[in-house]
Amino acid sequence: xxxxxxxxxxxxxxxxxxxxxxxxxxxxxxxxxxxxxxxxxxxxxxxxxxxxxxxxxxxxxxxxxxxxxxxxxxxxxxxxxxxxxxxxxxxxxxxxxxxxxxxxxxxxxxxxxxxxxxxxxxxxxxxxxxxxxxxxxxxxxxxxxxxxxxxxxxxxxxxxxxxxxxxxxxxxxxxxxxxxxxxxxxxxxxxxxxxxxxxxxxxxxxxxxx
Length: 210
Ligand code: SF4
Ligand code: SF4
What we know:
Elements: E1 5-7, H1 10-16, E2 22-28, H2 39-52, E3 56-63, H3 66-76, E4 86-90, H4 93-102, E5 106-109, E6 111-113, H5 117-123, H6 145-148, H7 175-185, H8 189-192, H9 202-209
Parallel strand pairs: 2-3, 2-4, 4-5
Antiparallel strand pairs: 1-6
Helix pairs in contact: 3-4
Bound molecules: iron/sulfur cluster (SF4) (2 copies).
One iron/sulfur cluster (SF4) binds next to loops.
């Protein structure tokens, strides 16, 4: 078993793009062990389906190791990326977060991340994605609330934040204040106010069993 990311239902992705005039699509080719197959066909399929819905595409690319190289990938693509309203990222949660950090544009996650034990070790490299199987980065400005908030809250900030610091330790930033600031910068405070439903972790267990 070696699942790392798989595409979200297309209608869910389409919902993310509702306010976009045009997008750029970036598909991660994966790392040495994961998701290298089907990159080209996944991307072609996604482009075709989005174009069918009348959303403009300024371009697309397949690049490896977005989790580690997002900044240099975006620099490399700066001439070809055009001026899209947003970026649609076909990658695991780490990849999406890294791209969101490296751009001022809105970043949409196209995938959910799952993991097996072996890959979990890779994920620990940055502790930034818990591979929850139901990615919510769309609503949190590309910052994962499960890892950036000390309590992994899905709706925050909690009453323990003070002057942007977390009650668990005043040495660390409140993750939900960071999310608020990012969403404010992106002009997406309406989305910030969406209530995130509890996660159904049984879905990941099913993935592990299958
Ligand atoms: S919400 Fe967080 S833990 Fe879940 S897939 Fe996205 S980045 Fe990973
Ligand atoms: S203060 Fe912020 S980071 Fe700390 S637990 Fe509350 S919401 Fe999470």
